[in-house]
User: Which sequence fits this backbone?
């Protein structure tokens, strides 16, 4: 979903909201300090920045006033330069980093549990069953075989070898490493080792996956392949994934939502198109500047929404090379009939990949049509593209003008 | 000034002597128990090794070495060199020394590995025991030979104890090294999957440190062997005895023969024990 909020609203850091049932992780006013916690927090509350706090107390402000709601089944990317606190926040979710203040609520066995205060036993239970992790340097045990690495979490849980084996082999199949089960991890390439890391994380069947720059140590091509594989797996598994990355293009590709961090704070939290179109400050804008909007934006981010279209006698009016067009909608808002210059014509359709599913004069396309594809579709038609939402209702029109505007911002 | 210094001598030696005296007076039962238990263990193993016919034992060593290393050269060396030892007439002394080395090393591992683990987990503890370890390795052996003699009486036991004091720092240091060099990433990975401290130790730290710990064990064996002659001075049986006797009677031939037997035992033990380290290296290459 691309956000249609006003620029000012989108730029603001989301304020604390009441708990919602579909949140997998909720961070509330989270602060993490390395060193003298009390003094550093007091300084931070007075508005001191990270360097001042370090100079005066020697403590490092890891994260401050971080509020994030991470929904069930979404991929949330924490993005920022090194030292921005993204890994720090991630590692608070499974208690690897100690929380100085605030709450880290994790949905564990149907209820939200505060990792910061839950006690060692519950924390261990959360780590065993609910939250698993993938590491930048893989974190595999080099003296173990691939199979024994994947089964590590289950072994820690106390599961017997026979029971473990079935699960492990299934996960290895999932990441395409079935033939490598008995190899030592060190015989594998970096990309394959991280597949082992992924399989290990999936093996415990945890609902929440923490991924700490999992692909940063890999070659660009391998990285791209693993990103695709992760997205494909996510289609099937619907895990809640918190993904740390320093690479905005990776964040835009993978994330349903992106939290951009700087100096331990979240400066912007929103959908990829939101970040691209409405960067909250100069820091975010600097990142966005180097991105190609064609890779990120969808047609609905640039379209003219239905509410702003001109109407005549209930029909949506548009101009095309072939003449005046009137598109009538049914009571639910779905495109019904098409008139061009007073004559009834057929409505065509393309799918999200741009492939024609029905021939016609005006093309109806899903709203999440990638902008690249939208350009192609518009080029082959004489009329603006009619974008429809998932229920088939007209969401807006996408014409040359809209596309140019989106590209130029 | 110097006169004043020398006339007011600090009673360092007498204090330590009194302390040892106090120990002999009050802890005699304890030290007797250790002495009896240790000598029973060492003598028991020696008796077992000598009860088995020599040739059968040589064959057993050869088979064991082959099973571990699959090296014909090593097996040939073991067989030929042990036959030479039998031929020279030092079989019994060699077995006595082997028994002493095995028990000294076992004691060192039983004490050294847990201490090393504890020291790796608590940096302050390692700071505290480091000077003690340095002392154990540098203080001349004869110095603590005297109190051990007083506490445990003449024979094999003070030999084993002195050997343990001398060799113990190696496994402690190397265990500490092995455990404290476990990459933080591995430790965190285990914690992130819910490992307890115990699971962390047995599933991550010890396996990672194993090559280093084994190096410590090998070193411990070699250090124990180097103590054989000194152990003989306080009455421990073994290859040290003929060396001491040869020294006292200026018997060059006996000295060389016993010396060669010690070297042979050292080489065999070294080659048999060192292998796991090399295998681990090849795997990581």
Assistant:
């Amino acid at each position: 979903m691309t956000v249609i909020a006003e620029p000012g609203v989108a730029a603001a850091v989301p304020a604390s909201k009441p708990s919602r049932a579909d949140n997998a992780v909720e961070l509330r006013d989270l602060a993490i300090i390395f060193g003298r916690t009390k003094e550093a927090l007091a300084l931070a509350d007075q508005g001191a920045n990270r360097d001042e706090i370090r100079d005066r107390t020697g403590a490092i402000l890891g994260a401050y006033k971080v509020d994030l709601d991470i929904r069930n089944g979404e991929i949330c990317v924490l993005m920022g330069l090194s030292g921005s606190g993204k890994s720090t926040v991630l590692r608070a979710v499974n208690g690897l980093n100690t929380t100085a203040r605030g709450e880290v609520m994790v949905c564990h066995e149907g209820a939200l549990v505060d990792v910061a205060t839950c006690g060692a036993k519950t924390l261990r239970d959360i780590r065993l069953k609910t939250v698993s992790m993938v590491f930048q340097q893989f974190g595999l045990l080099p003296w173990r075989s691939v199979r024994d690495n994947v089964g590590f979490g289950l072994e820690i849980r106390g599961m017997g070898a026979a029971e473990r084996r079935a699960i492990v082999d299934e996960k290895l199949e999932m990441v395409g490493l079935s033939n490598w089960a008995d190899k030592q991890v060190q015989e594998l390439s970096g990309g394959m080792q991280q597949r082992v890391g992924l399989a290990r994380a999936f093996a415990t069947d945890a609902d929440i996956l923490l991924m700490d720059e999992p692909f940063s140590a890999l070659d660009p091509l391998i990285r791209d392949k693993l990103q695709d594989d992760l997205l494909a797996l996510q289609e099937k598994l619907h895990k809640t994934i918190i993904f740390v990355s320093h690479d905005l293009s990776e964040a835009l590709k993978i994330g349903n939502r992106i939290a951009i961090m700087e100096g331990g704070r979240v400066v912007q939290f929103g959908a990829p198109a939101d970040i691209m179109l409405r960067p909250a400050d100069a820091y975010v804008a600097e990142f966005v500047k180097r991105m190609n909007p064609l890779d990120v934006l969808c047609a609905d981010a640039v379209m003219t929404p239905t509410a702003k279209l001109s109407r005549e006698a209930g029909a949506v009016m548009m101009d095309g090379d072939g003449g005046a067009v009137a598109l009538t909608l049914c009571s639910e808002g779905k495109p019904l009939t098409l008139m061009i210059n007073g004559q009834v014509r057929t409505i065509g359709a393309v799918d999200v990949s741009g492939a024609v599913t029905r021939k016609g004069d005006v093309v109806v396309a899903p709203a999440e049509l990638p902008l690249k594809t939208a350009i192609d579709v518009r080029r082959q038609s004489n009329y603006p593209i009619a974008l429809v939402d998932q229920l088939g209702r007209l969401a807006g029109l996408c014409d040359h003008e809209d596309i140019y505007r989106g590209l130029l911002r | 000034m110097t006169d004043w210094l020398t006339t007011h001598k600090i009673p360092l030696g007498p204090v330590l002597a009194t302390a040892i005296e106090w120990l002999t007076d009050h802890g005699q039962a304890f030290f007797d128990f250790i002495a009896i238990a240790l000598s029973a263990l060492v003598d028991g193993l020696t008796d077992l090794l000598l009860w088995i016919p020599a040739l059968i034992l040589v064959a057993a060593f050869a088979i064991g070495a082959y099973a571990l290393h699959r090296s014909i050269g090593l097996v040939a060396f073991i067989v030929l060199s042990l036959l030479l030892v039998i031929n020279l007439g030092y079989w019994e002394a060699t077995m006595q020394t082997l028994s002493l080395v095995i028990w000294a090393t076992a004691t060192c591992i039983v004490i050294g590995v847990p201490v090393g683990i504890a020291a790796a987990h608590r940096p302050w503890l390692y700071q505290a025991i480091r000077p003690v370890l340095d002392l154990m390795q540098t203080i001349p052996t004869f110095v603590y030979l005297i109190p051990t003699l007083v506490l445990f009486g003449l024979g094999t036991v003070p030999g084993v104890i002195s050997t343990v004091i001398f060799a113990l720092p190696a496994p402690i240091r190397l265990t500490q090294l092995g455990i404290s060099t476990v990459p933080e990433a591995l430790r965190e990975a285990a914690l992130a999957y819910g490992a307890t401290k115990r699971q962390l130790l047995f599933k991550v730290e010890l396996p990672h440190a194993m090559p280093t710990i084994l190096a410590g064990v090998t070193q411990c064996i070699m250090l124990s062997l180097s103590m054989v002659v000194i152990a003989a001075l306080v009455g421990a049986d073994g290859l040290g005895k003929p060396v001491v006797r040869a020294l006292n009677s200026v018997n060059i031939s006996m000295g060389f023969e016993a010396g060669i037997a010690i070297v042979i035992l050292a080489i065999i033990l070294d080659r048999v024990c060192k292998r796991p380290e090399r295998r681990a290296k090849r795997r990581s290459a």
Observations:
- Confidence is low (pLDDT under 50) at residues 1-19 of chain A.
- The radius of gyration of chain A is 25 Å.
